[in-house]
Design a protein that fits this description.
- By secondary structure, chain A is of the alpha/beta class.
- Chain A is built from 13 helices and 13 strands.
- Chain A has helices at 15-33, 36-41, 56-72, 85-99, 115-125, 156-170, 187-201, 218-232, 244-256, 272-279, 291-306, 317-320, 334-342; strands spanning 45-50, 76-80, 103-107, 128-132, 148-153, 175-181, 206-213, 236-241, 265-268, 283-288, 321-324, 327-330, 357-360.
- The longest helix of chain A has 19 residues, at 15-33.
- The two termini of chain A are 38 Å apart.
- By secondary structure, chain B is mainly alpha-helical.
- Chain B has one domain (45-341): ABC transporter involved in vitamin B12 uptake, BtuC.
- In chain B, a hairpin with a 2-residue loop joins strand 2 and strand 3 (196-197).
- The chains are: A alpha/beta, B mainly alpha.
- The A-B interface holds A 52-56, 58-60, 62, 181, 184, 210-213, 215, 217-220, 222-224, 226-231, 233, 245, 248-249, 252-253, 255-257, 271-273, 276 and B 60, 62-63, 65, 67-68, 71-72, 75-76, 118, 166, 169-170, 174-177, 179, 189-190, 197, 262, 265-268, 270-273, 275-277, 313-314, 317-318, 320, 323-324, 326.
């Protein structure tokens, strides 16, 4: 921070710049100049940065983060980007300044390119950070040792293939089905569709009647399904949805025409309505990345690094960049899932940092 | 359409501005050809709709099947039509309402949280939907009040309320999706009368109500007067402020009705329940031939507009058009509709 002083050449000085420089120098002195022992006396702030609280996924994420913070008795803050990259990045920088770098960060960057400035700011301020979902392919945790600990995603291809397999089994491995995908340019939508197509090749008696996009929205999926029922009628033996929001829209359109429970539906995300539909026998399955776990573990990993419990630089590469396991909800385990995850919150061992590591991230 | 025969010839209509909306044809340029041109402008959207239906019917006969007409078209068009009814009056005044999604999500939130649901123990029965409609109407009033009394352009006032609405929904629902379990609410979407599900009847009622307001009340006349020229309307003694507030309140009411039906249809409410509604509503109104500049068009146009948008969406699925093409087609449709409907000769500037 103090290095900013060097950027001012003499002729550019005016009153505001002098004051800014003085403030920056003062903040720098407070943050960096004081002995480490004094700083460590106050517990670090656990910071989570996510898109918004108006979607169920990130709402549960925050509940998980809050639960973890409460369990260990440390202050935590949730920042929301509201889908605004500038806001997301500057809020994090402001937080670093406010806490004097005495914080850890778990961030779901609003957009892929955002990860770089966030990670660089953390590295410079010596803040341990974990990123989720979005980062450029050439940005790697081991290039920012030890502060950029891990980048975690969930493999959409595997997920898309898994629910396809479940759907095809429920259809008796033959007949036609329709599929409704997410926003075409969305990477999660592309991956899930890729998984569907790969699985489809393994089942020659299954026919994909049509693929449409519902832009992740319930209502669109509802309308598309209504039209599909006209076009294909009884030929539709199953519906594949790239997320549960659309899946439940599909289900309600089927229900309107007396087909709920007769035509199996699959989705991804594990939203409560879909879980209940699995229980009712209307959905075959749904999978979830378990945002409750993401909220807690995303803070636990950098906190343990800050507390010196492990050295990120010495961790194996698979722990630095990986796809995590998803939780699968099927007819077999739905009763337990509802008991542990819907009616209450699961008892997760937050010290078990790496038990959900599934596979390395592959770039293509 | 019924009134069209009563309207004065376009050339004479310029002076009797408030009598009938059709007099706005007089803005069309040219001499003898202007009557035909005006007729084309008036019925253009309807011709487009008929042509679309015939094409789709020829390409896929199941388009005209009873199942498709009921579920693929009528039922899907119900909520967009109700929303378009409110938006029509506002656009006729030359204003815009961007708050649809926020207001709708507030309405949906109220229905879901007051009726039997999987989040709390409330069971207020029919008070749920009634209060939801009342709350949306109040938000509509607030839109008009902020716009008129605080003198903020409708664009900004309603933009603000859009986010206020989303915020209220987010706080009340805690960001999650809450399912409605009240069988009476679900029945609103699934109960059938004469083979058509209830939402279709609600939409028909909303249309007739809006048509009555447009054709048979002072309010309807005032809206056209304001859209045609606010300063002249004001000088002529039209209660501009009251009419404006009333139009926004009315839009709130229709949005509330749409919110109840949306919850009934989807069986759940979340903050994003209304995503994409605002764009679709404005698209439908404009495609129907109502001018964004105000003063020309009407709820009949909006009915045609909503049907065009729905037929196109339905038709693209029926024909199996690649999803990559869908949005492009929608965009082209808007440009074509505006190009057809705008009376460029009348204005000095194309912004």
């Amino acid at each position: 921070m103090t290095s900013r002083n060097n950027d001012f050449s003499v002729d550019q000085f005016n009153r505001r710049q002098v004051l800014t420089a003085a403030a920056a120098a003062g903040a720098g002195a407070l943050a960096g100049g004081l002995p480490f022992a004094v700083r460590a006396a106050t517990p670090p702030t656990l910071v989570t940065s996510i898109r918004s609280l108006s979607n169920p996924y990130h709402a549960v994420w925050k509940i998980g983060a809050d639960a973890f913070a409460k369990a260990i008795g440390m202050p935590n803050v949730t920042l929301v980007t509201e889908a605004n990259s500038e806001k997301g990045i500057s809020d994090i920088k402001a937080m670093i300044a406010k806490t004097g770098s005495n914080m850890v960060l778990s961030v779901d960057p609003n957009n892929t390119p955002d990860a770089r400035p966030i990670v660089e700011a953390c590295f410079k301020a010596k803040v341990y950070v974990v990123t989720w979902w979005n980062k450029p392919a050439d940005l790697h945790p081991w290039d920012f040792d030890p502060y950029y600990i891990s980048h975690i995603e969930f493999d959409g291809v595997t997920n898309g293939a898994y629910i396809s397999d479940q759907l095809f089994k429920a259809m008796g491995d033959e007949g036609g089905f329709v599929a409704v995908g997410g926003i075409l340019s969305d990477s999660a939508a592309i991956d899930r569709r890729k998984g569907l197509m790969a699985e489809l090749k393994k089942h020659p008696k299954i026919e994909l009647l049509d693929f449409q996009t519902g832009d992740w929205q319930s209502q669109k999926a509802f309308d598309i399904t209504s039209s599909w029922l006209t076009r294909f009628g009884d030929k539709i033996k199953g519906v594949w949805a790239a997320n549960d929001s659309m899946g439940t829209g599909v289900l309600e359109a089927l229900r309107a025409q007396g087909l709920a429970g007769k035509v199996p539906v699959v989705g991804i995300d594990g939203i409560p309505a879909a879980v209940q539909a699995v229980k009712a026998g209307e959905f075959v399955c749904t999978t979830t990345s378990d945002p409750y776990w993401q909220g807690g573990i995303g803070l636990s990993i950098p906190l343990q690094a800050l507390q010196g419990k492990f050295d990120p630089a010495k961790e194996q590469k698979l722990h630095r960049e990986f796809n995590a396991q998803t939780v699968k909800v099927t007819r077999d385990n739905v009763a337990d899932y509802i008991k542990n995850n819907v009616d209450s919150h699961p008892n997760i061992d937050w010290n078990n940092l790496w038990d959900r590591v599934a596979s390395p991230i592959v770039y293509d | 359409m019924a009134l069209a025969s009563q309207s004065a010839p376009p050339e004479a209509g310029a002076d009797s501005q408030v009598r009938t909306p059709r007099t706005k044809h007089s803005r069309a340029p040219g001499g003898g050809g202007s009557v035909w041109r005006a007729r084309l402008l008036e019925f253009g959207p309807l011709l487009v709709l008929i042509a679309l239906c015939l094409c789709l019917g020829a390409l896929n006969p199941s388009f005209f099947s009873f199942r498709n007409l009921v579920w693929g078209l009528a039922n899907s068009a119900a909520i967009p039509l109700i929303l378009a009814m409110g938006a029509t009056f506002i656009i006729l005044m030359g204003s815009i309402d961007l708050s649809v999604e926020g207001v709708l999500s507030v309405g949906a939130t109220i229905v879901v949280l007051l009726c039997i649901n999987d989040s709390n123990a409330n069971n207020f029965g029919w008070w749920g939907p009634l209060l939801a409609i009342a709350a949306c109407t109040a938000l509509g009033f607030l839109n008009g009040f902020v716009h008129v009394v605080l003198r903020i352009p409708s664009f900004m006032a309603t933009l603000g309320l859009w986010f206020v609405g989303l915020g209220i929904g987010t706080v009340a629902l805690g960001g999650s999706a809450v399912r409605v379990l009240d069988p009476h609410i679900r029945a609103l979407a699934f109960e059938r009368v004469l083979a058509f599900p209830l939402p279709v009847w609600f939409a028909a009622a909303a249309f007739l109500f809006a048509l009555f307001l447009e054709r048979r009340t002072r309010f309807g006349r005032y809206v056209y007067a304001i859209g045609g020229g606010e300063d002249i309307a004001e000088l002529s003694g039209v209660p501009v402020k009251r009419t404006r507030i009333l139009a926004f309140t009315l839009a709130g009411f229709f949005t509330g009705l749409a919110a109840v039906l949306a919850v009934a249809q989807l069986g759940q409410a979340n903050t994003t329940i209304a995503d994409g509604r605002m764009f679709m509503t404005v698209t439908a109104v404009v495609v129907g031939g109502t001018a964004l500049t105000g003063g020309w068009g009407g709820v009949g146009n909006s009915l045609v507009g909503v049907l065009i948008v729905q037929v196109l969406a339905n038709g693209m699925v029926l024909l199996g058009v690649s999803p990559y093409v869908h949005e492009a087609v929608q965009g082209l449709m808007i440009i074509a509709a505006v190009a057809l409907s705008i009376r460029r000769g009348g204005s000095l500037m194309i912004k």
